[in-house]
Amino acid sequence: MTDPHLQRAQLLFQQRRYDMAGDACREALLQSPQDGFAHSLLALCLLHQNKFDDATTEANLAIHNAPDLAFAHYALGAIYQERNYFAKAETAAREAVRIEPWDADYWALLAQTFISRQRWRDALDAADRGLEANPEHTPCGNLRAVALVQLGDKDAAARTIKDSLARNPHNALTHANQGWTFLHQGNPKQALVHFGEALRLDPNNEWARDGTVRALKARYLFYRLMLRYYLWMSKFNQRGRWAIIIGLWLGMQLLQGIRASNPGLAPFIYPLLAVYVGFALSSWLVDPIFNLALTFNRYGRYLLKPAQRVGSIVVGVLLLGAVIFLPAGFFLFSPLLIPGKLCAVMVLPAAATSMCPPVKPIVIMTIYTLGVGAAFTTGLILLMMGIDAGNNLLIASIWASVLSMLAANILLSLIPKK
């Protein structure tokens, strides 16, 4: 007969009462200290309470006591997935599906490990295997739709989501996926309907919250055009995105070299360089600028995170300062050039900082941004004192401002472990 403590633990776990479910698991372990299932379930309870180290310990104990228990490997894989150890999560998930290939939950976990690393084709294959095991498995259907959208098969993704919604119309993740599918199809209005439903069902759904912010900003044509670029770039893994960024930069350097050696081609090359510079600046400034617009929207301001709201206001103030002080300094009162230049130099680092997630990345970029401002201000003071070293400091701070985009990209590509 099944241990009554474990029966109670499973019921409490399904009710998301994870602390009480964990206590019931511990009571079961007092009777059977080597019960692999009890250790596995306790590990998942601890995971949902963000007790990551204890959860990992319990999952490893489960595998030690029951190495052939697929649920134990699944628990360890789920913990590693949440802790952002995606390769380890894949290893554990593969072992779970090897032992019990008929369990769709295990295939869903494997698909999730691939999606976290933008391995869309592998994710699709794993989700399909899960759907072979259980054709009505909603998580596998959702993961299949995500992979299909990223692989460019939007029609197949739409069919998959439609089937999932028909089976389970009250699944928040399915509605969020439907919203993202409409965004990829260039239909932000319809996307908002499904994002709204997802948030109604699950107010803490970050996938739907981010999609809602994107869809609200996509009402503006310019942002809609930039969103197409963002969504296109999201189809590549980190290595692919870096290859595109570096390739574009090398291409511009090549054009610069051609212009230098062939001055007659300058009228044709300058427009290309201008487009590249404008595109590069827009890719970093468009989000904080449109976030600023959302702060005055009665719905949008509640969707933005505190860092996004603060960052958008800072970037807006700096842009306004540059727009006001630079022309005023040129045409009316030259000392106004000083705050105008400082505002202009600080815009990019501030925008880069606003896009970094908490806690460590945004702290690093904040320090970086303050350092750029301090270096530029010091350079101006030294120049006013007649010290030539100030010019070198100004040049260095300007380069640091430009490179802030690269620094933020690096920080965004680093996923912190938990």
How would you summarize this macromolecular structure in one to three sentences?
The protein is mostly helical.
Count every beta strand, where a strand is a DSSP E run of 2 or more residues: 0
Uncertain segments: none
Roughly how many Å apart are the termini? Answer: 38 Å
Radius of gyration, Cα only, in angstroms? 26 Å
3D shape: elongated
Order of helices and strands: HHHHHHHHHHHHHHHHHHHHH
Mean pLDDT across every amino acid position: 86
How much helix is in the residues? over 70%
- Supply the helix-strand structural class: mainly alpha
Strand content: under 5%
**Count of discrete alpha- or pi-helical segments spanning 4 or more residues:** 21
What's the story with the biggest beta sheet?
none
